[in-house]
Amino acid sequence: MLNDLLLKSLGIFDKIFIKMKIICESKKISVDELKKMAEETFGELVKATVDVEKEIIVVGGDLHSDQESLLLEQGSKQNNVWGINLYPFKYPNSEWIEFDSMINLRPFLGNKSRSVEDPLIREKIIKVLDKLIIK
Prior knowledge:
alpha+beta
């Protein structure tokens, strides 16, 4: 909360969160939209954070941690939130999803690297992506 207040006082808060989009069952996103987002930011990738329990995704923005904060503010539980990178120009190749983010470092859950190590969680992430991304 203190960070939010600091960002708001600097006029940065809204700029960070405007770039991000919450993707859910009622508001899906297409691969073409992801391509456009990639071109406008990192060139070939879009950062995304997935809540595997609520089956929602936040895309866009500069940091997975900002996306994670947004999901937590929406009631997500930390243990269900995982950071990934999407490479929409590689879609539908399986390499279009990269399970890598600093927010995934969770030794207390047995995840000791930036990658999503648990194959069951990876499957849940893929299921959410398949459900919410229009091909």
